């Protein structure tokens, strides 16, 4: 509820009544005054979304100049064509500086760890420490949620740092920033595994349009799926000359145990057999369409010991035989 009161304060400073936004979010004046009250993610979505539009300021008074409605959508679109998450985040940080110079965002990679660092340039506490906290939380949850959405994957946080003491509602931070949290830090930052930067973006313009219709849940509800391990398995299989890898050889290539490999893939909603089939299927289709190799050779190159088992598997993947697929009869 602390954040709801901060939004109400922005309305008061601009001379606009917050009554409509509070009513739509189903927050009564009595509830607003309760210091230990909580609101649902849906209430936060409605309240802040309405405020952004009525105030025409997606930063909700945080910066020295307002960010008109659609500003963050523009940032998301400007990074959509990036080849991987690392480039998308660098573009997002760079373009954010065009909107305001009150903060500077940058991506800092040190070895296996990367940090999204937020440096304060303006006086974010000019309306009080609560307004400053709300701004920092809002911006960091925004960029973290968008990063997860770009690659359709949970990005676990190695740590989250905040340059202020733990607030009375500090327990809520574990929900917004799952992972170790440090208050009274030198600066605000989120830290995560650098390997996520290499993952390709999985969204297009159509997906962006749909997301922007209800963007706020991205900044509140963490993703559950983690694509990092599945992507690593695909890369090992794709680069390997031998596609008949089993769990033991794959686990060894990834410096983990076969048991951990199976368990983590299951947590991601994937399986080793599924990933092997995806890579085998793609390689077989590429060879059938791009070369004149006999089906027997395509089968061997795709990790099969005999042509008969390859044809049976290919039919389950493509709904036709390899020969019919090559002829375009599918």
Describe this structure in words.
This protein is an alpha+beta fold. It is built from 17 helices and 5 strands. The protein has a 5-stranded mixed sheet with strand order 1-2-5-3-4, with helices on one face. β1 and β2 form a beta hairpin. The mean pLDDT is about 90.
Termini gap: 57 Å
Radius of gyration: 24 Å
- Secondary structure tally: strands: 5
- What is the 3D shape? elongated
- Provide the β-strand percentage band: 5-15%
Helix amount: 40-55%
Structural class: alpha+beta
Outline the low-pLDDT stretches: none
How are helices and strands ordered from N to C?
Answer: HHHHHHEEHEHEEHHHHHHHHH
Main beta sheet strand tally, sense and closure: 5 strands, mixed
Tally of separate domains = 3
Average pLDDT, rounded to a whole number, is: 90
- Count the DSSP helices: 17
Question: What is the structure about, briefly put?
Answer:
The chain is α+β, with helices and mostly antiparallel strands and about 325 residues long. About 55% of the residues lie in helices and about 10% in strands.
Topology:
Layout: H1 2-14, H2 19-24, H3 29-32, H4 41-55, H5 71-79, H6 85-99, E1 103-110, E2 113-120, H7 129-151, E3 157-161, H8 173-176, E4 181-182, E5 188-193, H9 205-213, H10 217-220, H11 228-239, H12 247-253, H13 258-267, H14 272-290, H15 295-301, H16 307-318, H17 322-327
Parallel strand pairs: 3-4
Antiparallel strand pairs: 1-2, 2-5, 3-5
